Amino acid sequence: MSEQILIDRADGYAVVTMNKPERRNALGTDSMAALLAALTDLSRDPKCRAVVLTGAAPAFCAGSDLKELGGLSIEDMRDHEAQTARIARQIGLLPMPVIAAVEGYALGGGFILATSCDIVVSGKGAKWNMPEVRNGWIPPWGLHSLLARTGAAAARLITWGVMEIDGDEALRLGVADTVADDGGVLEAACVIAARLAALPANAVVSTKRFFEAAALGDAERQDAETSRLFGQDCNGDDAKAVLAKFTVTK
What we know:
Elements: E1 5-9, E2 13-18, H1 29-43, E3 50-55, E4 59-61, H2 66-69, H3 74-93, E5 98-102, E6 105-107, H4 109-115, E7 119-123, E8 127-129, H5 132-135, H6 143-150, H7 152-160, H8 167-173, E9 178-180, H9 185-197, H10 201-216, H11 219-233, H12 237-244
Parallel strand pairs: 2-3, 3-5, 4-6, 5-7, 6-8, 7-9
Antiparallel strand pairs: 1-2
Helix pairs in contact: 1-3, 3-11, 6-7
């Protein structure tokens, strides 16, 4: 398993940790592939009845790795983000519940990765934000998960990125399902995971399957549309200026 993704097994569940603290666990090609591999392996283990997804301090996840994106063409950026989108959608198709344990920053793609999970536990002091529109582009994937949680009006406001959202505000908006004291989020998420793991596994799976359509909706088509708009936006001057800061000169 990649060092960028750590797995700790407990009685009936597993904790999966995104482990790129120097990049605030930004979503890159290698780390997302490793995350998919980890979740796929755990889904095949009958002893793993729930998963807690978290990030190594100081962040849950700071979103897409702009250092990686900055050196790509717009079409390659779209392909990169489409692969991330497929992995995030896969969370909703896994048989076991996935619980996001969010401390520190949950920004952009990290925000959406958390809302792609079945349950979200937020720290009171967590910083939730969507910076993409400020950068000049629409988020390229995952807005269906935000819509499913908050409704259209709140999702639009959140996506504009003009709100300061901490744990309590995330709970009020529907982004988070419960809030824990800072430093206690992982423990709180593990308590929920253990409770789920103690339930009859077939009934937990059936319940997730029943709500799958409501949670995922028209996700694949919506991701394709935001990808198209993202590519269009990235031709704008504001987006080009932001991406140029991360372009690696070879």
